[in-house]
Amino acid sequence: MVAGAAPTADAGVIRFEDVRLGFGDREVLSGVSFVLGRGETLVLLGVTGSGKTLILKLALGLLRPASGRIFLFGQDITELEEEDLYALRARLGIVFQEGALFDSLTVFENVAFRLLEEREHGGKDHSDAEIEQRVRQVLRFVELEPAIDKLPAELSGGMKRRVGIARALITEPDAILYDSPTGGLDPVTSHTINTLIIKSRDVSHVSALVVTHRLQDAFTYANHTFDADAQQLRPARTNGAQATRTRFLLLRDGRISFDGSPRDFQAQADSYVQRFLA
Amino acid sequence: MQDVAATVNDFFKGKILAVQDYTLLSWRSLRNLFSPPRYLTDTLGQMDIIGVGSLPIVALAGMFIGAVLVLQTADQFVRFGSPALTGDVVAIALVREIGPVITALLVAGRVASGIASELGSMVVSEQIDAMRALGTDPTKKLITPRMVATVTMLPLLTIIADFLGLVGGFIVSYFVVGLNPVQYWVRSYNAIEFGDGVQGITKPFVFGFIISTIGCHFGLTVRGGTEGVGRATTQAVVVASVLILVVNFFMAKVLLRVIEVMGW
């Protein structure tokens, strides 16, 4: 398929085909291939510095691969111009590792950023009332409505991640990419963030690519569902990973060394995987 | 020996790549003027920060430079029996060279560093990536407004600096040296010709472009966290200042020829 060609019908959300990327003499990704299907949750595991974040940036077109091809919603974005990528990016949300909130804007302005840009420069007719209603709605979803007028500097690390999730959800994207969403957070806050990730999957039916090095988080996504009545996580009744449509990927030495179910992952005899599980 | 050759090779490659990046960024900042979206509110905000924000230091510096020029030159002219020429020299020096260059250097110190540190901080905290991921082109929202604001504000700041330089010169010439005030102003006014004005007002447009694009370039190419931001800030000021001085020489050469040919 040529760059920018028309999407194929069952192309999934993200497809990597033999993607390579390096800096200087060091090749970080040495032929990465995987597919994130619609409605799936893909947990990308790997040690620190293995190139997990690079995969997210490549998926968004923020970086270009040295070779290989990347497809977003079936469209080849490998050589797509930056201007042509914006329409596709609008269908994706991303939660950065440290939130990446605009520090000179309030929580409201951060969350509303995309809507305000669409109104001012994208020709969309969002009224002030509609924007405020949608911002409040997603802030309620992440339980942060009282912080609407605060600046990012006034928020804790966990609150920043939650605002990041709200910002990603505001335009109801087809998929969300999470970059180490619980990295550096305490267990209680991590549980809150994980609950929100599962909640957005089960309530909004959003596909997700979650980058993490925390195996316990990966199994939480695989084995739990969100109980909307009780507003909390419940263990999935039967075969959790199948019910939650969760797959694990293991990034090792620049390649995907495992792509399969959590159960298969646990059954791996490979010493590297065993050390990861330990 | 091979290591040295490789290091030299990498060094020059790095410099050439930096020039290429800077050229592309400058080109994009100009191209964005002709393609929507245009960020008028952001541009006005930057005009306030860059123009109004720089006004106090530019005014103060302009006034004291004019004052010290008179202090240094008037004595010499008095010795040669032509104190009236003080106004001529101060006016020409200020309008042609000192006003544009000193104003540009002051604004480079304040604005290039500010732009580099602001954009650099946004890079290291992934705000630039977030902006791109959210569908907004940072070159349109961040770079072009800063470029337009600096290019439009610097000529205005230069005019203010020139005028306040003459005022500073007048204060010293009248109260310290004891020159005739009417003579100072009349001679200053008459000394400045159209060509001097062309020189004095053309340069700030180019200097403004250099200051803003160099600040943006070093800010957006920050590597190495907060330490990198500090390094980029320093480099932005140094490179912008040196470029202003070098470009000033070549512009002076070209403009003098143009003025001569056009008979201004």
Description:
The complex is a heterodimer of chains A (278) and B (264). Chain A has helices spanning 52-59, 82-89, 107-121, 128-141, 157-169, 187-204, 215-223, 240-244, 262-267, 271-277; strands spanning 14-23, 26-36, 41-45, 67-72, 75-76, 92-95, 175-179, 207-212, 224-227, 232-235, 246-252, 255-260. Chain A is of the alpha/beta class and 278 residues long. Chain A has a single domain (14-277), classed as P-loop containing nucleotide triphosphate hydrolases (Rossmann fold, 3-Layer(aba) Sandwich), CATH 3.40.50.300. In chain A, the strands form three sheets. In chain A, strands 6-7-8-3-11-12 form a six-stranded mixed sheet, sandwiched between helices. A four-stranded antiparallel sheet of chain A has the order 2-1-4-5, with no helix packed on it. In chain A, strands 9-10 form a two-stranded antiparallel sheet. In chain A, helix 5 (157-169) packs parallel to helix 6 (187-204). Chain A is globular and about 55 Å long. Chain B is mainly alpha-helical and 264 residues long. Chain B has one domain (2-262). In chain B, 88% of the residues lie in helices and 0% in strands. Chain B has eight helices and no strands. In chain B, helix 2 (40-79) packs antiparallel against helix 3 (85-124), helix 3 (85-124) packs antiparallel against helix 5 and helix 5 packs across helix 7 (194-220). Chain B is elongated, with a radius of gyration of 22 Å. The chains are: A alpha/beta (278), B mainly alpha (264). The interface between A and B is medium-sized, with 25 and 16 residues.
